[in-house]
Amino acid sequence: MNVPFLIAKRYFFSRKKRNIISIISNIAMIGVAVGSMALIIVLSVFNGLEDLIRAIYSSFDPDLKITAVEGKAFETDTEFMNRIRRTPGVAVVSEVIEDNALLRYNDRQMVVKVKGVSENFFEQNEIDSSIVEGSYQLHQKNEYYALVGRGVQYQLSIRPNNEFVPLQFMYPRNTKFNPLNPEASFNSREIIPGGVFAIERQYDDAYVFVPLNFAEDLLEYGRRRTSLEIKVEEGQRIETVKRALQEVLGSKFLVQNSDEQHTSLLRAVKVEKLFVFITFAFILGIASLNIFFSLSMLVIDKKKDIAILASMGATATTIRNIFLFEGALVAFIGAAYGLSMGMLVCNLQQTFGLVSMGMATSVVDSYPVKMEVEDFIMTGAAIIVITLLVSIRPALKAAAMSVTDNL
Q1: Model pTM?
Q2: CB 367 within 8 A of CB 45
Q3: Range of 321's domain?
Q4: Is residue 393 a part of any domain in this protein?
Q5: Other beta carbons within 10 Å of 374
Q6: Per-residue pLDDT tens for 84-108?
Q7: Do you know which PANTHER family this protein is assigned to (predicted)?
Q8: Dmax (CA) of the chain
């Protein structure tokens, strides 16, 4: 039988409602409940934002991406490509050429990112589900077509499938500039706009997809590629295939999974989440100061009880534990209410989308939330540490109280 806990429970549940100590304890409990609820909700929102970022880029990014460690392009040949295709777990290898070029349409122009892709590109990519106008086909009846981002379309007022007004790309040639004939220093190629995609503003405002052969001709890359995009076979672990490819390619190439392709953005979300956790932990600490005051007043109020317990043989450790348990009861009951309310709010947001993001988006209409066990563990650990810190001094003071002075 845990005597200190039984006495602490009696003190907690048997106090008179009008007792000022009870009022302060209830205020402390409410503060802990509100703080822990807010912490769980905010951390769940950050988890949801991480998943939202991954969902947005999943239609654009491959499972694995191979790039050169130095320079923006690397040479490929049949033997090199076969080594990659023979790697266990590799299902599809798409060749990519990506570079900046000047795009003209009618009397308007802008610099865009031209992404030339091989024919198997759509076998591992979900861009076809992001087409908002026209078709996603890049080849049709021996004709080349381009896919333009919605932002590019708005900027240049592009009309898809208008064969009378093609897109005109210009790219500087690897020759000496001739001021007498400046156009001779640029490659110029035309292509029909076949469709418009809408993925995310970063891509919609800058990217144009074209067939790989068209990009080779325009950019004069030959057998050089800026990246290779890999689809991993079903049932294979991406990290296992990544390590195998890295061993095959060596240190001159970088193999990245989808998270590593956006590492700076995801790291920023994680850092913000950490700082939010620290901030709310401080708020929980301030709310828990009421536990310190209520315990200090309880020690004064129960001086005679402490003296009687000591005279009956209770040790200083027993008396100290009574008040530590008292502080723990206040904090943990408040935390239990707070965590339960936080879980309820998150479930309601997931089910009904109560809070809107307040902007037009094709991805989600309301704030995404995702509850993780680690957040509940971290919140619980923070409450334990804070409770111990605010309860230890009143508990030690009670343990050091003189018996003779209080009987």
Answers
A1: 0.83
A2: yes
A3: 3-58+265-399
A4: yes
A5: 10
A6: 999 999 999 999 999 999 999 999 9
A7: LIPOPROTEIN-RELEASING SYSTEM TRANSMEMBRANE PROTEIN LOLE
A8: 108
